[in-house]
Design the sequence.
């Protein structure tokens, strides 16, 4: 069973059930991760949703569908019109601004209201670009906040 073809067909089937206009669905793989690129000029805002919530939901549904088909977890990233790249750039800009503030003021900063995915991007950006800083999350689920502070070790 060709996983790329199955992922493409199942994605197209789900999108058809959602009754959305899609021009193209492409699936690629890299290091056992599968990337689904959806192109939609009309329904992109619907597919992405508020702060990417619908996009994450589509990705989760696809993961469940593919688990039922293959009997194993499939590492999947679903993207619409390069939304994730633009989102990553925006989050990295926020992280850079906060990092500069922490360094200048020598005082930790907190960032509320980010999804798991968004916090992960910020954590990775801080650890890669600011060795003098550290970041961690505190709290539970929707109340989880990200803390960026000077490294003390």
Sequence:
């Amino acid at each position: 069973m060709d996983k790329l073809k199955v992922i493409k067909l199942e994605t197209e089937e789900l999108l058809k059930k959602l009754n959305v206009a899609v021009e193209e669905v492409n699936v690629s793989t890299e290091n056992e991760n599968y990337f689904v690129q959806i192109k939609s000029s009309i329904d992109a805002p619907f597919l992405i949703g508020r702060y990417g919530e619908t996009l994450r939901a589509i990705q989760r549904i696809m993961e469940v569908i593919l688990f039922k088909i293959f009997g194993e977890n499939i590492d999947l990233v679903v993207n619409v019109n390069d939304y994730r790249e633009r989102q990553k750039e925006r989050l990295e800009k926020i992280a850079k601004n906060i990092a500069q503030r922490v360094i200048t003021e020598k005082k930790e900063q907190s960032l509320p209201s980010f999804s798991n995915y968004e916090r992960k991007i910020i954590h990775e950006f801080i650890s890669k670009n600011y060795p003098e800083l550290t970041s961690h999350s505190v709290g539970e689920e929707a109340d989880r906040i990200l803390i960026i502070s000077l490294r003390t070790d």
Observations:
- The chain has a mean pLDDT of 92.
